[in-house]
Amino acid sequence: MSNAILMSGGADDIDFMIHGLFSYQLFGHTVWITTSHVCILIVMLVILIFAVIANRKIKHATEVPDGFQNVIELIVEKLDGVVMGTMGKVAGPKFVNYISTIFIFIFMSNISGLFGLRPPTADYGTTLALGLITFFLIHITQFKNLPLKQIWVDMCSPLPPWLPIWFPINVISEIAVPISLSLRLFANVLSGTVMMALVYGLLSKIAIIWPAALHVYFDLFSGAIQTYVFCMLTMTYISQNYEQE
User: Fold this and answer.
1) What does the alpha-carbon distance between residue 76 and residue 115 come to, in Å, rounded to a whole number?
2) Mean pLDDT, the chain cut into blocks of 10 residues (245 residues total)
3) CA 238 to CA 142: how far, in whole Å?
4) Alpha helices in 18-166 (DSSP H)
5) pTM listed for this prediction
6) Closest CA to 223 of 115, 91, 138
7) Contacts of 153 (CB under 8 A, 6+ apart)
8) Which of 154, 178, 149 lies closest to 167 in space, CA to CA?
């Protein structure tokens, strides 16, 4: 428990494993609150505080924006532009809030290692939950907007619908979507977390200043890339299963 949440400190304190902080009994089962839960809570609180401040600032927005208002408008405009450019004018407005939310959450989780936290996305439970949310959203949208006949034709392609040989393969490919989304994000973030833990643990005496360059790559650059890839794939999957008008 002493090396639980933060990954900074002395060589003996650095650890990339998930630790249980405390437990409680729920319906006869022991439920653990782990470092991942605490780090997720910290990230969510930071996002919530930023959102409240941004909301108050926008309510009193000036015609000539100042520094913080510029940052808010830049974030919103860039996220709106990416979503609208990828999903189009039909699906884009329906999903811009969801895509923007997971983008900010994943990015903040990925870069939390810069502040000594264990990134929540280095826990497969977190990334799998994100992948499953996207998976269900894809298929809810599919059944809501596409006729059943079109769905059947798509699941039987590239062969005609009266010869559903490819149907089982297409079902497997659909089930693989949340697994591939979650594993890609999890593996990339965890690898960076393990690398930095090894650097500080094995090279603690000479790990001064120069590891900052590794943090820039593993936490900031790689974290931004993986956030973009996850959101871009999510938008692509949804757009493919959305009836464009």
Assistant:
1) 25
2) 47 65 83 88 94 88 79 90 89 90 94 86 93 92 85 82 82 91 93 81 72 78 92 90 59
3) 8
4) 35-59, 67-111, 124-145, 148-156
5) 0.85
6) 115
7) 161
8) 154
